[in-house]
Write a structure and sequence with these properties.
The structure holds 2 protein chains of 2 kinds. Chain A is mainly β. Chain A is about 0% helix and about 50% strand. Chain A is built from no helices and 12 strands. In chain A, strands 2, 5, 6, 10, 11 and 12 form a 6-stranded mixed beta sheet that branches. Chain A is globular. By secondary structure, chain B is an all-beta fold. In chain B, strand 6 and strand 7 form a beta hairpin. Classes of the chains: A mainly beta, B mainly beta. Chains A and B meet through strand 5, strand 6, strand 10 and strand 11 of A and strand 4, strand 5 and strand 9 of B.
Chain lengths: ~110, ~120
């Protein structure tokens, strides 16, 4: 069965520091990968997605993610974190783009110190 | 335009009571999803509606859970005889279903936090 692992439950960084949030998936074929952000009191917002092509994907708010098939990973990165980036981040996978079901990881809570 | 809205934002109920949670999708979105977010868990898919097709109920955890979508718009998730393990945030999402499947972005509401005492 498909699964998504986000090994870091909670990460704390200083404002201006770089960020990398880890995501590993378990699935035999090429999955379709997503990162969502959930700010306090808000619904989830799509940051970026990977379906095919260039393995480095650019998203909104200055985020990017890189698909690495050899490592079954889709880590989210940002070169310089802003205080407003404090939120919970979810990685998700779909087994094909024709499915309607997303399988989500358990999330990583990001705290940003000034 | 307006995003996905959900009501109530918070609901506290006693064990054994029935609850109804409401979702208003973005106007024109034909696909509607319900997810459950429990403490320390990821989002768990519950049910999916697409147009007039039969809903995909494969994620509903028990027969105490049901959902309907009236007129292809508003949806209600009903939990009968609530249990403490039903305490969670229930999220609704809608998508325009222009390309099909996960190619269409799902837009999420703010959720309803359900607490069962």
């Amino acid at each position: 069965a498909q699964s998504v692992t986000q090994p870091d439950i909670h990460i704390t960084v200083s404002e201006g520091a770089s960020l990398e949030l880890r995501c590993n998936y378990s699935y035999g074929a090429t999955p379709y990968l997503f990162w969502y952000v959930q700010s306090p009191g808000q619904g989830l917002q799509l940051l970026l997605k990977y379906f095919s092509g260039d393995t480095l994907v650019q998203g909104i708010k200055g985020f990017e993610a890189e698909f690495k098939r050899s490592q079954s990973s889709f880590n989210l990165r940002k070169p310089s974190v802003h205080w407003s980036d404090a939120a919970e981040y979810f990685c998700a996978v779909a087994r094909s783009y024709n499915t309607d079901k997303l399988i989500f990881g358990t999330g990583t809570r990001l705290q940003v110190f000034p | 335009g307006a995003g996905v809205s959900q009501s109530p934002s918070n609901k506290v109920t006693e064990k054994g009571k029935d609850v109804e949670l409401r979702c208003d999708p973005i106007s024109g979105h034909t696909a509607l999803y319900w997810y459950r977010q429990s403490l320390g868990q990821g989002l768990e898919f519950l049910i999916y509606f697409q147009g007039n097709s039969a809903p995909d109920k494969s994620g509903l955890p028990s027969d105490r859970f049901s959902a309907e979508r009236t007129g292809g718009s508003v949806s209600t998730l009903t939990i009968q005889r609530t249990q403490q393990e039903d305490s969670a945030v229930y999220l609704c999402a809608s998508s325009p279903r222009t390309s099909g499947g996960v190619r269409d972005t799902q837009y999420f509401g703010p959720g309803t936090r359900l607490t069962v005492l």
